[in-house]
Amino acid sequence: MNDTPKILIYGYGNPGRQDDGLGIALSEAIGNWAREKGLNNVATDSNYQLNIEDAARISEFDLVVFADATKEKIKGYSVTSLKPSPKIDFTMHSVSPAFILNLCLEIYHKKPSAFLLHIKGYKWEFMKDMTPEARENLKGASGFLKKKIMTYKKAALGEKILKNRSIKHKRPFV
Questions:
Q1: Which of 28, 119, 152, 172 could staple 22 via S-S, CB 3.0–4.6 A?
Q2: Assessment of whether the complete model's pTM goes beyond 0.85
């Protein structure tokens, strides 16, 4: 039995619209890093938008981090915890991470720990090049996520040791 937590980094956005591709770029960066480090428990995925079919994908993981560009007034990046929500706006072409999490719970009876990593973007024109400021934010978000993944992995290993001693310990993420 493998007690190593399975982690999914799911980036979404449009890389053809400058900084809107930050989520996908983060997913690619973490995927490359995980392969270099031999972290077989870390998977990545990306798409232009979230779809209801993504509920099946996330049901396979213990921890899911959705990554997306934002116009919000934040400094660099921010992380928020996600809870399942049945709320959906039928005028949109995509669904929210909380709605995907809700579908995962309702259909597959699984509820991975889930977070949304917002990465500050600045320009949204139809071109592939990200702004230098967005690249800096991507670098910061990537560094943050790498540290958290390693902390999460170490905590899971510690949890396994503690479990053998009948002591419970929660895995930290945020």
A1: 119
A2: yes
